[in-house]
Amino acid sequence: MSPPSMASSPSPSVFTSLLRWLRLKIYQYEVTFALYMLTPTEKFIFNSLVLAFLSLFITAAYIYLPDHVASIYGHVHYYFTADVSMIKEYIPSPSSILQGSSAGPATGALNVVYESIQGAASTAGLDEL
C-alpha cells in the first residue's frame, strides 16, 4: 500500500498575492473614508487633494525637519551642559540679521538699536553678543 497522497493545491504566485493585498488595501481605504459612495469624478478630486497634501507634507518634512531637529538638539544640549557653543550655531546673531537685511530706511534704525544693545552689553560685562 502506498501512503496517501496529499492533495496540495497550487500556492498562489507572489504576483497574485501582491495583487490581492493591494486590492484589499484599496477596499479598506475606500470603506474607511466612505469613497465607495462617491462618483468617479468626486473620487478623483478627493484623491488628488489627499495626494497633494501628502506630497506637500513630505516635502516640508524633508526640507525643514533636519534643521528643526538640529535646533532642538542644540537647545537640549545647552539645557544639560550649559555650553553655549552648540546653541550659537542655530540662533542667528543680531549682526548677521542686520547684514542679511536689505538696505532701506529701517536699516539705520536697526543699526542704532543694535549699537545701543551692544553698548549696554559691554557695560554690563557681556561682551559676547
TrEMBL record:
It holds the Pfam family SPT_ssu-like. InterPro entries: Ser_palmitoyltrfase_ssu-like. It is found in: Endoplasmic reticulum membrane. Its main location: endoplasmic reticulum. GO terms for cellular component: endoplasmic reticulum membrane. Keywords: Endoplasmic reticulum, Membrane, Transmembrane, Transmembrane helix. It is a multi-pass membrane protein. It comes from the Eukaryota. The chain crosses the membrane at residues 44-65. This is Serine palmitoyltransferase small subunit A. It comes from Talaromyces stipitatus (strain ATCC 10500 / CBS 375.48 / QM 6759 / NRRL 1006).
